[in-house]
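Typical record is below.
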Amino acid sequence: MLKLLKFLKPYWWQVLILVLSTAGQVYTTLQLPALMADVINHGIVPGDINHIWQIGWIMLAVTALSAGLSFVSSYFAAVVGANFSRDLRATIFSRVLSFNLSDMKEYSTASLITRTTNDINQVQSVMVMILSMMLRAPLFCIMGLVMAIQTAAEMSWIIVVGVVAVVLMAALIIALVMPKFKIFQKLLDKITLITRENLTGLRVIRAFNNEEIERKKFEESNSMMTRLLIYVDRIFELQNPFINIIFNGMTLLCSWIGISLLNEDFSYLGDMTAFSQYASFVMMAFLMLSIMFVMLPRANVSADRINEVLKTIPKIKWNGTTKGVPDKRASVEFKNVDFSYPGAEEKMLSNVSFKTEAGKTTAFIGSTGSGKSTLINLVPRFYEASAGSVLIDGLPIGNYSKEDLMKRIGLVPQKGILFSGTVTSNIKFGAPNATPEEVRAAAKIAQADGFISRLPKGYDAHIAQGGTNVSGGQKQRLSIARAICKKPDIFVFDDAFSALDMKTDAKLREALKPVTEDAVVLIVAQRVNTIKDADEIVVLDKGKVVGKGTHFELLNKCKIYQSIVKSQFSEDEFEKETKLAQKSAKEANHA
């Protein structure tokens, strides 16, 4: 929790006002019992009405001043607490955005959501409480105790007994509830995870008729959290009877001892009244501290979870500026690249080498798990190569700043990701300054203009979160249009044509040619028809390059590529492709 106090630094002057106003409020409040004692001893007992009015007006003014200072301190506590949580949320969000894919695997999405929302809310609540109570309570304790002793030293032992009772009560409650708070946060993560999975996978759950199974999973975690909350609430509810017993006991003791002293000196009535109020202030202060110590453990658990995220240093280090001068002509080159996922025993990629330049299309194909998507993810540096080097436009990828590298790459991921907004805002996501004409041109190339025009508001049509109100093929075409609108030097299509029918696929690839003639095009695909016209096809098997060449070249020399083509073509089509490949080879030899 202490590590997060650095977020208060920008608001030091508000905190200073808060401290001063709190000190003033405590001081003025503690003057009231002394003034009341003065009224009783020098006004009521001797019957001096003028003195009663005189001190009464003073008490009214002191009360008004105390209320004003209390408002100021409460206001600044709320302002500082809200700004504190805002800055903390922004910092965590920025840190998460800086994570690469391997960093993200250390946390579940549900856990990051909980840490950014619920955990920060917990810390904010306690921070406001600290700002408003942590100074007020010690001041009430110290100043109230001093003034109580000055007023009636012979009864001060009553306060000691009350304080010991309150401290023991708080210690018992903390010991009982603190272990439960850590369990609570983990359960909250689990419920968030189950909820998120069910909302995103609702169609699959219904398709397999597993609603009851998912409902039981949720109810199990929900019931555990309910039992935990009931347990914690029961423990907290023990505070009220204990506090009533302690306060009533103190009042009884003060009255009993005070009345016995009145028999000796009736003027002691004012001092007894003042002492009772001072004792109440001291006990209330210790009660506030006990509440703080009860709330702190839960906030401390949340603070630890927040600090885990803040302490996570991204494994990939980016330069502030690009070191070196990239080639003017775009290119992508892999030199003996190896890659292993963290904790994995086997390499996902092994000794991968290829080079492609602007104006060329390089495609990657292979069986599931052969490393195609992993290889593509090294180009935008989502992962760092374990060995070897990746060069973009002639420079090692580690030389680039993040902004410089990303502006060169237009990525269309395997799963089309859209954001809540409009069709236009999604296409302009990578090119915020694009004109309406450029947006429409990109959509036409991506074969998306037709269905966009049929939407109720056309390019201003609403896109739901995740693009749930458009089909898979429409989502994919909008993702492609987004990459085209960016006008990058390197196009990366990670199985980006899988949801398109063959006719749309062919039209789109044909429309792409003029746009990509000065750019590098990297395509990962499962369908041979999508990549058969590529300038070079790289065949991967178990993370290794087992073949490189054109479609016909690979048909002649690469058995794995032959088996892939054979699995997707009919016998007649495969035989036709094989004959064309043989003919092409003969013509090449003859030339």
Q: What stands out?
A: The chain is about 65% helix and 10% strand.
